[in-house]
Design a protein that fits this description.
The protein is built from one helix and 20 strands. By secondary structure, the protein is mainly β.
Amino acid sequence: MRFIGWMVAAAIVAFLAAPAQAATCPSGLTACKAGAWGAGGCYRLGYANCSNGLICEAGMNACGPAAWGRGGCYRPGYANCTNGLICSSGMNACGPGAWGGGGCYRPGYANCTNGMICEAGMNACGRGAWGGGGCYRPGYASCTNGMICSSGMTACGPGRKGGGGCYRPGYARCDNGAIVTH
């Protein structure tokens, strides 16, 4: 009995140590080898297609993962692929940058600056030593080193005496990061 147990154990070890074989698919299906874009699998010709391991429904294109997105399948005419980011038709891709993670936006309704998407008519304010940045409307606010202050206010950067902030000249002043009222 021990001999049979050792034979079974040896057979299991040999099976596990053997190089992986290509996947076999049932009759009527085609194998899609795993690749950089997907795990592969079986698909029916004419109903789907395979691109670098990614199986997409017929009529859809494969979009490989890249610097801007994870990729996937999309239908031409309804979407587009830019550097791994899939956006609906009529939208532009905005790659990630120092100011934001990027995404999709509709030209004329928004804009992209260094990865930050802001509503049309607004400016991007990049992160800086004084604040986290964001979007602001010129004439209603301003950006100084990442700090956005309302119109008529002045930015006071952080310093030895305080964390800084926005203040209205004539009512207060900035003293090394502390806002001091008159």
